[in-house]
Amino acid sequence: MKLLKKNTELRGSARQNSSLPHKCGVPGRGGTLHLCGRAGRQKKSLLHSFRASALVGIGVGLGLLLSAVTQWPGVVEMRAGAEEKPTRSIGVTNAPSVPSTISGLLPDQSHAMVDVGYHFANLWFAADKENWPLAKYYLEETRSHLNWAVRFHPVRTTKAGAEVDLKGILQAIDNSLLTEIDRAIANKDEAKFKAAYRQTLEGCYACHTACEKPFLRPQVPTAPSVTILNFDPNATWPQ
User: Fold this and answer.
1) What is the pTM of this model?
2) How far apart are CA 130 and CA 188, in angstroms?
3) Distance of CA 150 to the CA centre of its chain
């Protein structure tokens, strides 16, 4: 009887202990980790909040993905239209004007004609001193710069609208008057040189008149255009 009473007390004590909550971190029945007290409730609350936030985030992500898929055709069409549409240049009011042709980038014809006058004036004094190699040099320079001037503006237009073919005029002068000067230099003939020189000045003035510039009246030069050069063919200095 004492043994039976003792077993009964042990069983009651076991039932009472089983009804008490387990300590935190102590495994319960089935190996489950039970949480107890205030810390347990806080951890459970955080766990539920995390799960809820994760579900909301997944829902938002799926919604954005579906929205992008439904709007994709419109986006593609807008992008294709933007690529096909030509871009317009932005106008700048203070930008300098751009020349429409290459002639706007070239110097004026008068710059080349200044060089022509320089070489043609020195040509006279080289022949006057009978320095024929120097005269030949200045004749070739005159021809070269005349061609340069015509390349700038091969045609000039008068106020009346008529076109003056400068290239054609130069070809005529070069094949006749300048060729006569060249021949006189080759023959070392001073008299023929001076006659051909004056005739060339008359031809130049005819061209000036055709271009409506009769005030550009050439003459036989009275002094060379350069003073640093010695025109004397018999000069001995510098060696």
Assistant:
1) 0.58
2) 7
3) 30
Alpha-carbon span 176 to 19, nearest angstrom: 136
Long-range contacts: 223-228, Cβ < 8 Å, 24+? 224/121, 224/122, 224/125, 225/117, 225/118, 225/121, 225/122, 226/118, 226/122
Could you tell me the sign of the dihedral formed by the alpha carbons of 188, 192, 194, 196, in that order?
negative
Q: By CB neighbour count within 10 A (0-12 exposed, 13-18 middle, 19+ buried), where does 204 fall?
A: buried
CB-facing half-sphere around the CA of 7: CA atoms within 13 A: 4
3-state SS, one letter per residue, for 80-95: HHHHHCCCCCCCCCCC
Please list the residues that pair with 163 across neighbouring strands.
157
Residue 214, preceding peptide bond in cis (omega within 30° of 0): no
Which positions ≥6 away from 102 have C-beta within 8 Å? none
pLDDT digits (tens, 9 = 90+) for 220-239: 999 999 999 999 999 999 99
Taking the C-alpha atoms of residue 205 and residue 219, their distance in angstroms, rounded to an integer, is 10
What are the two backbone dihedrals, phi and then psi, of residue 156, each rounded to the nearest 5 degrees?
-115, 150
Across-strand partners of 33?
27
The DSSP output letter for 131 is -
> How many Cβ atoms from other residues are within 10 Å of residue 166's Cβ?
21
CATH code of the region 108-210? 1.20.120.290
Residue range 150-194, pLDDT digits in tens: 998 899 999 999 999 999 999 999 999 999 999 999 999 999 999
Domain segments of the chain: what residues?
33-80, 108-210
β-partners of residue 157 are 163
